[in-house]
């Protein structure tokens, strides 16, 4: 065992301290990013598989990093069981993160074990995106760079004191469970990190000065946030699993006929000759001419996305190539490709490129990469943790990283083809910020879905609270509102014959028993979808802020207002971009309370002016989005289009809420390539001057996508 | 990495095979018990802490051990991640065990991780008693002798085949979740065992020829099953947490006045000066004269049991003594004694002996030893897994073993005082069969509680499905019936002012709003309790069979009928002793189906003769126990007494169901010492001859506890 006290050196310098078996160093590896290393290097860390280099210039634009503690206070211990780390935790400090947590938000006092999984009941920490990472409202984030299962004790541990009779025991006898739960832990506290099996550890400390800057540093260090294709801002609709080519085209015709803005059509397993496991080959019986179908969709402005998972059927042309490049156990009877090996990712990607991307497919849904069903105890659904892979990564590490490595394989293919995309994926991990991939889940609790939007922003993740069936039209609308106000507006009808707004009941839907009020319902849904399309310019710009500055487009309020105690546990409201606050309805609520942070706000629908720092009651309305706007905002809303692609032009109405305090911006580029990274874009600056909006376009992109046609002042 | 193929040598002989870093041996360590060792020895295994030596003579009386596979087919691999084992699994073989599983019974195809925990939602395998152990209906049991967290994949894994295009993938595309779950795994199968962190492993194979013999071998190898004190067969009633001495005596007076047979009174935390954590010292304000109270109870035939947990308050006289003998983290602000160290257990026990046992306390309830609340994520309730202990055991191992080590400390004290007991405990593990301690739980799902009775018998465990409040009197009665038909009939009123049959609603109970029909209800409950007291001689003898032959007194039907496919998943019926089948009601059922195995059975209540191999419908009745009796049984039922202790004599009515096929037996000893182990007991043999029962008493115990007064023939 080696107990190591880290010597802080806040400069780019490497220091090694020998202490027993472990050597520990600390360096400022990037502006405000401190890397601590101790003991033997691990071969398979999230960092090693980073897709992008750090955005150094973005990091340089952030203020000097500060921390509420001295990095030297972090203690690392290594023994034959593994590594443990003790990180200082201040009194009253609030912790968040650990990836896409479901069912928990404020993590203080919790014992968290972020392990990849599809069905995270309870608060073990199981999640689709198990990041060994947390962020504090005191303005820093911690990432333990490991793919091993890691446990975090967030401050309720009680180290034995040095004094033998110190008074750290509660004075009275507790007679109820309630009393016991109220017991506070006294004395100096830490976050404890337990990494079983590791003989060395790296960790990153992302400095503040504040919470959002720490998160920005994390995202920029990962290479910057994702900027999906412009079409990804629209609505994605996945059709029923057994649809044939004609069914798909009929569905598209329905959308067009009814002017329902849908931007992407997703196919489910049956497009392939085999699934599960997958062949990655079109089934010509169901889809006789996929190229023709894709062209027809493109002509109507729609993209096509294909479902798959990575487990390779012996009916796939990839089988022979990947046989020796896969684990010694299978999943769903399919090969598990060793995605930790670049050549394996390349083979996998090449098949996708040659036979799917080249045909016009612009996105994939990457399912089942999250060790499905381990919490239901069924061993069929994935590979065991003892699985060995040719690269040397073990099964546990592979499980934790499988989602990011799968993203890496597919994203890289698109990037090399200079084609932007927007993917669906069931698992992710650290340093995934640059992947344009939205997580989704089978868990279907609406309240949790909203909370996951708030949680996603801490950890460089995107989350799509997909809509399927509902118990009532009201519930369907609430879910649809949340979807419209999320990073990806996804309707997943993989087991529904008709869109859910025509019949929200699954059984009746599939029996063709459509609602009598279906046209009224259709009108409401269309209005919500149209709002989404109005929001595209604002949203797309928020994503550009994510890419270039690391600011999460969707984030909990605590990120922007880290010292507001009333927000410590608010998980059902969140910010969209710089100036919008969303507060979706869930359950069967007619009304809900909305807490507005300090400052002055406007109700987006009623235009009522509201003073922050308190709660307001709002009423549910079918065709209104529960939104609030910060005073001083110039909000650019587009005239709704039926789809967005690289040719789309938007007519913009600028809504000015109160006296405009700041400029607003819009990001203008081709929308579907990486040319913006070579400077081929404009920043459209909007200034309110003398009752009208002045537009200034900076950049060399040659299409004026955004055209300001109107301005509305709201006092 | 060393892949080791074990050479089977079915004789007592040690063979070492060098293969890379691992050495592997196999020996028949006891009659029909094969020990396989590979790699480095572990220091802290369940086996090392066994309380009793193997019952060699009991084992010798079992038939020669046979197995459905060759032990040499078991494969062990060791690498730097840990150990993995592959154990052959036959087609159609059914697996059970893994300790006190909640929510699962038949474990085929499951991924199980038996980890100690109080709240085992889902099917991860978390349980109060996390045994790395399973038993097959093909007649063998496997115990992996480890206290590390271990994962078992029970047959649904899919090792990559050797042929590159072998047809192991399902032929068709699956479009529904239902279809996917129906997917069968083809090809050769194994149980895979994954022991992360271990650099060596021991395992035991308990041979058949049949399932019950394998379980008997396991129990006898552990030292034989528990034989609680005779008084433990009666009813245990725990009073409200804030009761004072006078309240306790009042409650006892109520029982006596109403002739409600209660045998043990349990006190909850408030008897101590501090809890949580515990002082283990009487609070004289609440209990001014505990010795007097205990004497008064004893005079009325009642024992006294005290709640505690093992975490030591700084208000305890044990604090100073245990400070350096405890872990470096605390739990509930109390010291965590290093129970892996004998001197620590002895200090802990000595305090209990001097100040509690010597005062007349005859049992303890050992709470919170199960890493409480880890699934709710709250870190306050126990010590972290990274905790270090002076003995060298790590926190993970300590968690797994804490319950058995705690039992060891307390049980040993009683044994040394030559005093039998019956304890309550919240955690256990392997080789715990000899501990007279019934597990209990806060989870309160009645259906699971019944299933846990069936599960307990596979793994050498005793389980008490405690009764607290209810939603209706009917539910209370159903729960009471299950309690009466379990290893310990426990009513836990720790938050109820009055017994639940006077008011089953918690709130009203504590407000003193008793039911108008309380006397009618009391009469029903009395009748159920009286049945329990009638069953004491039969039950006590079943426990003696457990002690001497290893036959679980409560066990799933599959144990006795391992080849009956209809029983593979039957978890809501179980055997009590040799000849009784119980089928408790749960939920709101008016009727339930009962499957009777092959042979002829009698409905205990209606005396109806029933042919086995099919299902029957029975109706719920408040005052009848849902029991069936095997044809040919001589069932000795006692005239109910209000309590049982070492002086109790029982008047017995023998019920003869059909033509008696076998003798019946009763075990007769002093009931509260270990003198029976020195031969001081009788076996009372009951034979039906010419219409009356012939009694033959073998042994040298000088009290005739059982007196046959009547015989009833049921044709």
From TrEMBL, chains A, B:
Domain Glycoside hydrolase family 31 TIM barrel, chain residue ranges per copy: 226-542
GO biological process, one term: carbohydrate metabolic process
Record domain Glycosyl hydrolase family 31 C-terminal: where: 550-635
GO molecular function terms noted in the UniProt entry: carbohydrate binding; hydrolase activity, hydrolyzing O-glycosyl compounds
Residue intervals of the DUF5110 domain: 656-707
Pfam families the record matches: DUF5110, Glyco_hydro_31_2nd, Glyco_hydro_31_3rd
Protein's name according to its UniProt entry: Glycosyl hydrolase family 31
């Amino acid at each position: 065992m080696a107990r190591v006290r880290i010597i802080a050196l806040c400069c780019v310098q490497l220091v090694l301290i020998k202490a027993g078996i472990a050597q520990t160093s600390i360096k400022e590896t990037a502006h405000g990013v401190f890397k601590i290393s101790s003991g033997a290097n691990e071969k398979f860390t999230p960092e090693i598989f980073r897709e992008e280099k750090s955005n150094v210039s973005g990091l340089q634009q952030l203020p000097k990093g500060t921390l509420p503690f001295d990095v030297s206070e972090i203690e690392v211990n290594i023994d034959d069981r593994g590594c443990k780390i003790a990180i200082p935790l201040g009194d009253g400090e609030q912790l968040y993160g650990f990836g896409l947590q479901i069912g928990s938000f404020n993590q203080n006092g919790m014992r968290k074990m972020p392990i990849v999984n599809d069905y995270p009941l309870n608060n073990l920490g199981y999640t689709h995106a198990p990041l060994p990472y947390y962020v504090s409202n005191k303005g820093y984030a911690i990432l333990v760079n490991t793919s091993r299962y890691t446990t975090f004790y967030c401050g309720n541990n009680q180290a034995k004191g040095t004094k033998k009779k110190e008074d750290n025991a509660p004075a009275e006898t507790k007679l109820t469970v309630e009393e016991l739960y109220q017991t506070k832990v006294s004395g100096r506290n830490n976050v404890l990190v337990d990494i079983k099996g590791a003989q060395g550890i790296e960790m990153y400390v992302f400095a503040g000065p504040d919470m959002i800057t720490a998160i920005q540093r994390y995202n920029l260090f990962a290479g910057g946030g994702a900027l999906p294709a412009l079409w990804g801002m629209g609505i994605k609709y996945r059709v029923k699993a057994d649809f044939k080519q004609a069914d798909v085209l009929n569905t598209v015709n329905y959308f067009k006929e009814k002017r329902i803005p849908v931007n992407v059509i997703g196919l489910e397993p049956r497009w392939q000759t085999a699934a599960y496991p997958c062949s990655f080959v079109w089934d010509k019986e169901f889809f006789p001419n996929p190229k023709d179908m894709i062209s027809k969709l493109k002509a109507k402005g729609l993209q096509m996305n294909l479902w798959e998972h990575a487990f390779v059927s012996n009916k796939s042309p990839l089988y022979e190539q990947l046989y020796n490049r896969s684990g010694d156990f299978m999943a769903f009877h399919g090969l598990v490709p060793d995605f930790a090996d670049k050549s394996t990712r390349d083979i996998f990607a090449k098949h996708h490129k040659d036979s799917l991307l080249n045909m016009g497919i612009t996105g994939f849904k990457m399912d089942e990469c999250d060790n499905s069903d381990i919490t239901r105890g069924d061993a069929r659904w994935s590979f065991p943790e003892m699985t060995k892979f040719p690269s040397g990564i073990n099964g546990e590490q592979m499980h934790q990283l499988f989602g990011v490595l799968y993203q890496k394989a597919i994203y890289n293919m698109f990037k090399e083809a200079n084609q932007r995309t927007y993917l669906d994926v069931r698992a992710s991990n650290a340093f995934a910020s640059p992947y344009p991939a939205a997580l989704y889940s089978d868990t279907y609790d609406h309240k949790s879905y909203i909370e996951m939007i708030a949680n996603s922003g801490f950890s460089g993740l995107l989350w799509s609270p997909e809509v399927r069936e509902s118990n009532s039209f009201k519930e369907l609308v609430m879910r649809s509102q949340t979807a419209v106000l999320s990073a990806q507006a996804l309707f997943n009808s993989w087991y529904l014959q008709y869109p859910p707004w025509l019949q929200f009941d699954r059984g009746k839907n599939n029996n063709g028993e459509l609602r009598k009020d279906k046209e009224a319902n259709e009108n409401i849904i269309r209005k919500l979808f149209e709002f989404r399309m109005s929001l595209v310019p604002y949203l797309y710009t928020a994503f550009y802020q994510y890419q270039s500055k690391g600011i999460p487009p969707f984030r909990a309020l605590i990120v922007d207002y880290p010292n507001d105690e009333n927000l410590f546990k608010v998980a059902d409201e969140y910010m969209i971009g710089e100036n919008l606050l969303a507060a979706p309805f869930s359950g069967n609520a007619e009304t809900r309370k909305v807490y507005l942070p300090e400052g002055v706000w406007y109700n987006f629908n009623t235009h009522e002016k509201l003073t922050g720092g308190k709660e307001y009651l709002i009423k549910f309305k079918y065709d209104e989005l529960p939104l609030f706007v910060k005073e001083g905002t110039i909000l650019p809303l587009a005239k709704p289009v039926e789809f967005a692609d690289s040719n789309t032009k938007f007519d913009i109405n600028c809504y000015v809420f109160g006296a405009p305090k700041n400029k607003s911006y819009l990001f203008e580029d081709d929308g579907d390539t990486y040319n913006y990274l070579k400077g081929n874009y404009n920043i459209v600056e909007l200034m309110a001057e003398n009752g009208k909006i002045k537009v200034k376009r900076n950049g060399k992109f040659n299409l004026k996508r955004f055209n300001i046609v109107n301005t509305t002042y709201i006092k």
